[in-house]
Amino acid sequence: MSNLAIDVYYIKNKARVVGLLFEDWHDQKPSNILYSNLDEVSEYESGSFFKRELPCILHLLKNVNLAKISTIIVDSYVFLDDQNKLGLGGYLYQELNNKIPIIGVAKKSFHLNKKNVIEICRGKSKNPLYISSVGLDLELASNNILRMHGPYRMPTLLKLLDKETKKYKKPK
């Protein structure tokens, strides 16, 4: 079984989706990197980030054997508040028929979101990451992100994922 971390990068109405597959939470290199480009994506809608991002993620997942995925990590929240308002990770979990656990890793706090989030600090960083999850105990999800390779705030694989998505240049 593999874990999959996914991120999306946008240029105007185009998007690049990148997925990093890895086997163990301590891995420093991915076992595979997946790419998907979309030529038409929805405009960003304030308060409904998932409407733009979710179709991009699902486009990438068409090329993934989901039966071999144990966990998916997204650069977002699973829940947006203490009343369980769904974020991108929650909507993705529903789209996958509640079968694959989702871990959300966010860099910014939402003030209405305290019970569905654990703040973790990695390395010497004083700035926490905000971890949320569905289909997986929140404490275990946080520990998995803490165990990921790398001495800095962002785990090595998530830094690589960000770098890979930003390699996307505007198509000619």
SSE diagram, text form:
Elements: E1 2-11, E2 14-22, E3 32-38, H1 49-61, E4 69-74, H2 88-95, E5 102-106, E6 118-120, E7 129-134, H3 138-147, H4 156-166
Parallel strand pairs: 1-4, 4-5
Antiparallel strand pairs: 1-2, 2-3, 5-7, 6-7
Helix pairs in contact: 1-2
Describe what this molecule looks like in 3D.
This protein has a single domain, classed as archaeoglobus fulgidus dsm 4304 superfamily (archaeoglobus fulgidus dsm 4304 fold, 2-Layer Sandwich), CATH 3.30.2170. Helix 1 packs across helix 2. Helix 2 links the parallel strand 4 and strand 5. The model has no long low-confidence stretch (mean pLDDT 93). A 7-stranded mixed β-sheet has the order 3-2-1-4-5-7-6, sandwiched between helices. It starts with a strand and ends in a 6-residue tail after the last helix. The protein is α/β, with parallel strands linked by helices and 172 residues long. It contains 4 helices and 7 strands.
The CATH homologous superfamily is termed: archaeoglobus fulgidus dsm 4304 superfamily
| Binned strand content | 25-35%
Overall pLDDT, averaged?
93
Shape: globular
How many β strands by DSSP? 7
Helix content: 10-25%
Number of helical stretches of at least 4 residues: 4
What is the level-2 CATH architecture name? 2-Layer Sandwich
| Largest sheet entry | 7 strands, mixed
Task: Flag low-confidence runs.
Answer: none
* CATH class category name: Alpha Beta
Distance between the termini: 38 Å
CATH fold type: archaeoglobus fulgidus dsm 4304 fold
Record the strand order, biggest sheet: 3-2-1-4-5-7-6
Q: Nearest-angstrom radius of gyration?
A: 15 Å
Total number of domains: 1
| Coarse structural class | alpha/beta
Return the string of H and E elements. EEEHEHEEEHH
